[in-house]
Every structure is written in C-alpha cells, then in structure tokens.
Design brief:
The structure is a homodimer. The longest helix of chain A is centred in the first third of the chain and has 16 residues, at 114-129. The first copy, chain A, contains nine helices and 25 strands. Chain A has helices at 81-86, 105-108, 114-129, 153-159, 194-198, 252-255, 271-276, 384-387, 406-409; strands spanning 6-7, 22-25, 30-32, 51-52, 59-60, 67-71, 77-79, 90-98, 143-151, 173-181, 187-193, 205-207, 209-210, 213-214, 224-226, 239-245, 286-291, 296-298, 304-311, 318-324, 332-333, 335-337, 353-359, 366-374, 399-405. The first copy, chain A, is α+β, with helices and mostly antiparallel strands. In chain A, the strands form seven sheets. A five-stranded mixed sheet of chain A has the order 7-6-16-10-11. In chain A, strands 18-25-24-20-21 form a five-stranded mixed sheet. Chain A has a four-stranded antiparallel sheet with strand order 8-9-13-14. The interface between A and B is large, with 41 and 41 residues.
C-alpha cells in the first residue's frame, strides 16, 4: 500500500459525531446512541450508528486506495474502489452489528453478594492498571442496523482464483487487516472460516455503501467487510489486506480478545486459556428493553407499552420474546414485528427484531424481565453470575428493568 | 404406491430388539439403550441405536418399493432402491440423532415447590386421559450416532427439476411422509426448509445404509431421510413421499407437536398456541452425564472420572463443557475428545462430543453439575422450571447427578 493513502494524524482528524451519544471512551472513540432512540428507526441512520474504534480513524485517500487480496489464492490481486464497484455484481444486505462486551451489568444492579462486587472491583482495577487493555464498558445501545452494499467477498475471492483450492476450503480462513494501527503496531485484524465467506447465503460483502451513502469514515471508509450473524468485531473496517490462509488470524483481537472463559478465570490465571479457547464468531441470542428505562416512574393505572429489541446470530430468527412483571416468576409473550420501512424486498434474517408488550396496569414496584428465544431453541441465561467472564463478553443474561408507578412513589 | 409394498400387520411383525433397552412404551415401540453403555462406542452399533416409533414398524417389500417425488418439481418421479443407489453419487454422513422430549427430569428430582409437582401430575394425567397423545417419557440415553450413506436429497430434487424454481427456493419446503400409519390415518410426517435440503454443506441425505448395513427395519428400511443438526423428529423413516411445497408440513407432528411454549401454557390453554408457534427444527445445546449414575456410591479418596456427552444443533460444535462439584457454585473445564474410531476422514460436525473430567477425590455428598457451550456461545439454562413446556421438549437445563462416597455412606 502506498504511504500516501494513510496519514498518521493521531486524534486530530476525527470525524464530526452526534452530540447525544454516550461516550464510553474518547480516544479511541467509542460511543453509543441513547437507548431511547434505538427504536426510532428499524434501519439506523448513519449518524445514529454506534461507533467502536480501536485507534484514531485513518485518513484514507480513496483515489489511491487499493485493497490487497493475497495468501492462498491463484493470483495476488489489488482492487481500487472503482474496480470493486464496477467489476463485480453489487449486493445489498441488511445486517445488524453489535458490540460484544456488554457490560451494562453496571446499570442493572441485580447483583447478589460480595462475589460480584469483587469481580467488578477486579475488573475496574485492571482497566486502570493496564492501559494496553482494550476493553470498553458498553450499554445496551451499542447495536445498530444498516443496509450495506458492495461486492460479495465470495466473488472477489473467486476472481483471485480460490477455486483452485476447493478440496481445502473447509480448512481455510479469510484474514482481514485494517489500516488503523492498534495493538502491537498492527492494523485491527480478524478472520472468519472460508466457508462463511464462500456461502452465497452467508451474505459476506465488502461494503462500499452504508444506507445508500459512501461509507462514513467512522464506519470504515472506503471498505468494510460486513460479516452478518457474527459479532461486530469480525466486520473489520478500513480494510487494507484480505489473506486466505491455513490458520485463524493471529491478530491480538482474534487471539487475545473476544473469548469466553469460566467465571473463575481472572487476569492472573487467564494466560493459558487464550490459546485453549476458541474465538467467538456467531452472536448468541440477545435482547434489551429500550422502554422504560431502569428506575423510570410510570403513570399509574394507565396502559403502558414496554418496548425493546432482540436478535440472534448465524441468521437464526427470533421466534419468541417473553416478558415478566414479577422478576421471572410468570411470563407473557411479547408481540414481534419486523418493520422494514419499505425495504421488504430485503431479507431480514440478519437484522434485529423489534418487540412490544402492552400492559394494562403496571404493578408497582415492578421488575420487568425480558428474555428472547431464537429458532434453534436457544434462550438467555437467568443469572449473569453463571456466565460472567473476564472480558464481560457475550453477556446475554435476562434483562431486568425496575420501575415504580408515580402514585406509589408519592 | 402399490398396495403389496406394505403389509398391515399391527404389532405382530415387530423386529427383534436388544434385551437391555429401557422400554418407555411397548406399542408403538420406544426404547433407549442403558445410559452406561452410551460411551462404549462413538459410532453406535445399529442394535444399540435408540428406537422412536409412532406406529407398528411397516413391513415393506424392497423389490417393489418406489420413493415418490412430487409437488413443485418439473417432473414427478419415482425411484426404486436400485435407482437411488446407482443413479446418484452416494454420500457418507456421520450424524447423531436425538429424541427431543427429554423428560428425564423425573429421575433428577431437583424440583423445588408445589408448582413442579402440579405440572408433573397434570402431565401424567394427560398421558393417561388422552390416548391419542403421542408423548413418551425418555431418559438421557435417547441419543445415538451413526454413519449414514445414500444419495443427497439435493441431487434427487435437482434430478426432478427443482432448479426451474430457483427464485422461490427461499420460500419452499420439503415435506416428508412415511409409510407408517399414525395420527389421523396419515403417515408420520414433517418438513424442512428447502434451502437446508439444497445446501451441500447441510448434508441431508436419503439414507439407504446405516453403519455399512442396509437400514434396519426399526430405523426406516428401505429409506430414511437424515437431516443432520435438526431434531430427530425431522429424520422421517420408511419414506413414502417427498413433496416440494409452498408451506410447512401440515402433518400432526409438525403442526401439533415439537413446539415450545411458555411454562404457564397447559392442555386447557394450548389450542391457540399451536398455530402461533414455530416448529422446532435445529437442536439446541445439550449434554448428559453418563457416569456416575444418579445416587451412585463412589469409592472414597480415589481418583474418579466423570464421563458424558454433549452436542448442539445446526453443525455448531461443542467448544466447552463445564463441571461443578458443588451444585453450580464453582466450575472446572472438562476434557473434550472426538473419538472417531478410524473414521477420521468423516466430518464430525453433526456428531456428539464425548467428554471426561477426572476428579482427584470426590466430595461427599456431592451434586455434580454439567453444562455445555456451543460455538455460537449458547449454553444450557440453570433451572428447568424456567424452560418447562407442555410437551417437555428441548429441555437442556443443567444436568445434575447426586453421589456419595462409600465411606461417607457408612
């Protein structure tokens, strides 16, 4: 890659951003929209899309930019934006991306006992002590849905001659590296199994557009791979190089992050577990309550509509969302609807599902609990303690929101 | 189908079966091997494979048998066994099948409170009252793994001209009906989405062989569809007709069975929910402890190896099995191994995983708990009460086995 393509500017050339975002980290910039605005749009406008960066946003010259395809392909290739747009059929994919370190346990305060408090202290201590650690605390609004457009990764790989290796396809991986310089002086990186990239129904694309516009700089201009159904961490932004290889990515963010451990593994004992554990790829089943907020005061005696979202990974649809008004003792079924705002010709299997549940009269005080089920009969665990892990990833324990009615509060 | 193919013989012509099976129902025959023998073979010998029947085993004349392909295909077709074997490439698939109504809660006795006892009484009452109800109580050994061989369903459908409808593929279903006469005077039936049937990586085959032998009568002679990664109920035996159609199967076993409901839905309130709920297709993440048995007495102070199996649906591999010796307060990681007995050239993504966990000295008394995780970060729920459903299907709550050491017992 020619050096002129990327200017090292530190944090001096960051894009303008929405003012109402909750900023979880300012450098690198990590922020999420207000929870209450999540349900305003089924397809999130670009300026409302959560932002997850690991380094300064690269300043890339689109004119000189070339995407490199290398590794186990018949011919190493370079593609300009023009070539990616004009030499390949353009595909449109609606896909929800989500941050996977959902530490909104801090705001839920449903902990029981000293064990959890110790875990949190340990966690915060480590953030402070180890500045090379890349974790960020997130709320439940670090999720957004967009319509992405660009060539299929499959077509680009086939044009580079991947079919010559067909008998090895099941053992190969596609490695992505971004232009952004993060850990170990490397670009942010990740890999996915080649079969996901080659599966037409897998819908992996090299996105050049996001909701009909050129990719915004915060979302990977000029090219971001979008890997639907996988955790957001695999949809690498500011793509520099795509490599077909025999092994998974050795990048920090594949080898030493986004892995699940037993609750008892801590920073002192984790070392041996990085290699023993597999990288997280597909998302598990997730849900959140976007209305009401925790500790909200609800008008007494009137009908009230609880709202939220749910989604699962791997293209598995949400088939049921259960709501409880008594902390999980009894349940009712929420109403699911996929509102695609005139985009009904687009497959929604990679998108979130919105749900509503109208209550005639809210008990007070009340702990609203929500859990979702996907079409493979996966559901969310009751107790966060049982799935707690060092990096707080893939937390999908029951969502709990406490409310009181106004009269009860008086 | 010519009438000579099937003889109506009631239960007079049932096959010979292993003597050590636990018989959960004798007519129709439903039985599972001893839990302790499950781990003897990674590939279950045919005579040790669990048996799940809904009617007398049909007596089918293989010479005159023809499989019918009809519905939305360019040409309706009939295939003899010889044609299925010689006109199509034969594929070998290792796949674990499992019964999905795992009611082994009866033997675990970890219930708390009257609510559960009422549910069980209600359940048993309904079995007795309604003889048309097809549920059977099963233990955790209603699972077996075999190597199946036959043509891909994909190839058979393509030979019948399914490619003419390519733009509708995502909306079509493949319906299977068996020869066995069950509910409503129909053969046992089910359907799967067409895309599962057409996906080369989906490995759906029309099995003519099971572990190198002609299909045994109890397992679907002469042809059984094997749908890897789905619940066993979709792998229809004694196949009579395959129909490509616009809608899911309307057969009793797709419409009125194998669906998940809220814990509070009972036989009085279920009617509206059959249509509102989707049929279960992919299996969820499951595990069992095969050694020790519940209430077993363990030699005190000596090393002991806990053993079991785990599996998940949709080709999702098991990535971790956690073992607790204190009822789920603390955990250790079990050792996973896939022993394929010289069959390592066969993909194991559709098979169960065996695991071991060696304990230096077992506490006494001790509740051993086991839970598994699949590669999409799905795990098993802690409490069966929270996922209880009318038909007891897809129970994958934590597995609990209570043991004492011999000295402690004295």
């Amino acid at each position: 890659m020619a050096p002129m393509q990327v200017m090292a500017s530190g944090y001096k050339k960051e894009p303008r951003r929405a003012l109402d975002f909750t900023i979880n980290q300012s450098t690198p910039f990590n922020a999420e929209p207000p929870v209450t605005s999540l349900r305003d749009h089924f397809v999130t406008p670009n300026e409302k899309f959560y932002i997850r960066n690991h380094a300064p946003v690269p300043v890339i010259d689109g004119e000189s930019y070339k995407l490199v395809i290398e590794g186990l392909v018949a011919k190493h290739s370079k593609f300009s934006i023009w070539e990616l747009k004009n030499n390949f059929t353009q595909h449109t994919v609606m896909a929800t991306l989500m941050v996977n370190s959902c530490l909104y346990i801090f705001s839920i305060s449903d902990f029981r006992g000293i064990h959890d408090i110790l875990l949190i202290i340990l966690f915060i201590t480590n953030i402070t002590q180890d500045m090379t650690w890349y974790g960020v605390g997130w709320g439940c609004a670090a999720i957004s849905n967009a319509v992405w457009k660009g060539p299929r990764l499959r077509d680009v790989l086939l044009s580079a001659g991947i079919e010559k290796l067909e008998s090895f396809w099941d053992q190969l991986h596609v490695n992505f590296e971004g232009v952004d310089i993060c850990k170990d002086n490397q670009g942010y990186g990740s890999s996915i199994p080649l079969h996901k990239a080659l599966d037409k129904r897998g819908d992996v694309i090299l996105a050049l557009e996001m909701n009909g516009s050129e990719l915004p700089r915060d979302h990977g201009y000029p090219v971001r791979v979008v890997v639907p159904g996988y955790i957001g961490a695999r949809s690498v932004k500011w793509l520099k190089t795509i490599t077909v290889q025999m092994h998974e990515s050795t990048n920090y963010f594949q080898k030493k992050d986004y892995k699940l451990f037993l609750p008892e593994i801590d920073w002192d004992t984790v070392d041996e577990w990085w290699d023993k554990s597999v990288p997280i790829q597909e998302l598990n089943v997730q849900a959140a309550i976007t209305q009401p907020k925790n500790n909200e005061v609800i008008p007494r005696g009137s009908r009230y509509t609880i709202k939220g979202y749910a989604l699962s990974g791997g293209g598995r649809k949400i088939v049921r969302v259960d709501i409880s008004l008594d902390g999980g003792k009894s349940w009712t079924v929420a109403n699911l609807f996929t509102s695609s705002q005139g985009l009904l010709h687009i497959d929604t299997k990679w998108s979130w599902e919105f749900w509503d549940c109208t209550i005639k009269s809210m008990p007070s005080p009340c702990q609203i609990v929500c859990r979702a089920w996907d079409e493979a009969s996966n559901t969310m665990p009751e107790d966060i303690k049982q799935i707690w892990n060092l990096r707080g990833v893939m937390n999908n324990s029951w969502v709990r929101v406490n409310v009181v009615s106004d009269a009860a509060k008086l």
